[in-house]
Amino acid sequence: MSMLRYFFEKSAQDNRALFEDLAISQDLDCMARQGQYPVIYLSFKELKNDNWEDCLNSLKFMIWQEYERHSYLSDNDLLNEENRAYYKAISNRSASLIDYQMALSKTFNCSIRWHVANKAVYKHI
Fold first, then answer.
1. Which of 21, 29, 74, 79 places its Cα 20 to 30 Å from the Cα of 117?
2. Which residues of 77-87 are buried (b: 16+ CB within 10 A; e: fewer)?
3. Residues 6 or more apart from 23 whose CB is under 8 A from it?
4. What angle is formed at CA 58 by the lines to CA 56 and CA 63, rounded to 5 degrees?
5. DSSP letters spanning 37-91
6. 91: CB partners within 8 A, 6+ apart
7. CB under 8 Å to 56, separation ≥6 — which residues?
8. Which residues, 6 or more positions from 24, have their beta carbon under 8 angstroms from its beta carbon?
9. pTM above 0.85?
10. Residue 53's pLDDT is what?
């Protein structure tokens, strides 16, 4: 799954070299899409909890990690005060369960807006 992330994710690091010796590198249409999209990446392979409370805490931590990875979203004018407060609540781990339930959707929407607004020049903060 991480290979999909590295293929599609628009990031400061150029991951094109990871695909040089693979068949996909010969498909110009596919390679034109490489590194063009915001990606939210969660892997559940490390979730090995024995009870719901620990599993929920692990999920919250994974969401927090993605928020930290996309912290550039909180430092721009595209977020209104409500979304900035929401982002801060997830980042400092004071969010409610409902906030965590909506976190990925909100992050996705914010990242799409940010990437569209910054299409000409990408800088990872």
1. 29
2. eebeeebbebb
3. none
4. 95
5. B-------TT---SSHHHHHHHHHHHHHHHHHHTGGGGGSTTS-HHHHHHHHHHH
6. 64, 67, 68, 71, 74
7. 97
8. 7, 30, 31
9. no
10. 94
> Which pLDDT value is given to residue 29?
92
Closest Cα to residue 85, out of 76, 74, 77?
Answer: 74
Token pair 């910054």 is at which residue? Answer: 118
What are 37-59's pLDDT values in tens digits? 888 888 888 889 999 999 999 99
Domain boundaries defined on the chain: 1-37, 46-125
* CA separation for the pair 63, 61 (Å, rounded): 5
